[in-house]
Amino acid sequence: MNKQKLDITIFNAFINGNEKAFSVIFNLYSERILKRIYYILKDEDISIEVMQQLFVKLWLKRADLSITYETFESYLYKMVSSLSIDHLRKNVRNQNLINTLANSRCDLEKSTEEYYIQKESLSIIEDAINMLPPQRKQIFTLCKLEGKSYFEVSEILGISVSTVSNQLVSATKSIRNYASKYHLEAKIITIIFFL
After folding, report:
1. How many other C-beta atoms are found inside a 10 Å radius of the C-beta of residue 142?
2. The listed CATH number (1.10.10.10, 3.40.630.10, 3.40.50.2000, 3.10.350.10) that belongs to domain 109-194
3. Arch. (CATH architecture) of 8-85
4. Residues 152-181: tens digit of each pLDDT
């Protein structure tokens, strides 16, 4: 494990937008950060995805950060904790939403066949969401599952509102196309718009 300290000139170059300095920071901290995220999330692929989100966010927000050389490392590890916990909360919300949708229909008197059809539909939706590219999935989750506005999502991810809108349209289209393979397009569209 690399325990080397960050040089102040590298830090200043990074804040001023130097990509090589950013690369040095990535190489210096990525292994430790990945281990910390994995300790929290217990999933290697998701940990790598969260680490990448962290470094993208760090790069995009570098000019707006009110940190100094002395506070950089503690800020970085606060980001690790925050993003990891946000990911855990998002998974809990997603699972709760899926459980709520499944349970609400099951409470009605339905035949066993209808119950399994609905369960399959929800599983297809979940699969379709999980197949989205990471940023599109994150935008869909933030807007549709967490109820955030396009503006809030653009602020969180450091992208334009039009990008949020375009990605959301693409996500919905991808989910609809995936669902159409199972002849469930009408049900999926209804569920998506109730989110």
Report:
1. 21
2. 1.10.10.10
3. Orthogonal Bundle (1.10)
4. 888 888 988 888 888 888 888 887 887 777
